[in-house]
Amino acid sequence: MAEIIASVPRRFGIDCLFGERGVGFSRWSTGRDALNAKISLKPWQLRDIRRSVATGMADIDVPPHIVEVILNHISGHKGGIAGIYNRARYEIAVFNAMMKWSDHVRSLVEGTERKVLVFEQRATATL
Predict the structure, then answer these.
(1) Do 36 and 52 sit in the same domain of this protein?
(2) Is the full-model pTM beyond 0.90?
């Protein structure tokens, strides 16, 4: 994942990794249609990817509240009164979950075993 991101050329005046016009990735259906033209898949929507990722992360023991953060959902642990008081961004846990997911996908694509990566939790202060 890190190698792919590092390979994307930086564009002057645009902070977004993907997308157009400096507003992030838009026109998802155009990208989906281009992908469908190259490979044969049943009709699908972007939410199907989100659902598959959420299910896959749960299957490799990523905690549900971290999956919610990754999907940018506000429910469960961040919904209602809990969300008012809990301002944590779970940066380390999200990083670890994404590394675990990346390794899982890599192992599926390459047909190799997963490598377990463990990172130390750093204390951060948020005001």
Answers:
(1) no
(2) no
